[in-house]
Amino acid sequence: MLLLPGESTKYSSKTSLNKEDGTLYYTNKRLAWCKGDEQTPAVEVMHENFRAQQVSKGGKKVMLKISAAAAGATANPPTMDSYVFVWRWKDKDAAIAERGKFVTDLSFLSLKRAKSTSGQQTPNAGAQAGPSGDRSSATAAGTAAAESSEYKNVKIGAVPAS
Fold first, then answer.
1. pLDDT (tens digit, 9 = 90+) per residue, 20-36?
2. How far, in Å, CA of 153 to CA of 151, rounded?
3. Who's near 49: CB < 8 A, 6+ residues apart?
């Protein structure tokens, strides 16, 4: 597979997409699928465009469905693309283990994305604004109090303010 500048392949796996055989690659920048022995990806999802994944449970096929924002999508919410990769291996346990590598790293991308979006200030309906009207300081104080051992059994908001 042709790599982007500064890109390295973490691992790859033989899969099929739309009943065509190919190779699925996971790199430090994207998820890419090349048809047959081609070097140019027929599908590529940059890490920042990845949105969700689903795996098959039970059944005969070992599958991974991913959803991603369409490349260059400017709509809010963005247009989504979905791809279903199938491991057609004779050894189902080995196929599940191979798929697991992708699932683990894609889950990491989801967590990383969730952390980056949670860093943005969002209003907390239960938090009271401080003197400056800032809700984040009230939320941080409530979180710190909830994590402190002496406050673990106190229900916040149960006692009226004095």
1. 999 999 999 999 999 99
2. 6
3. 68, 69, 70, 71
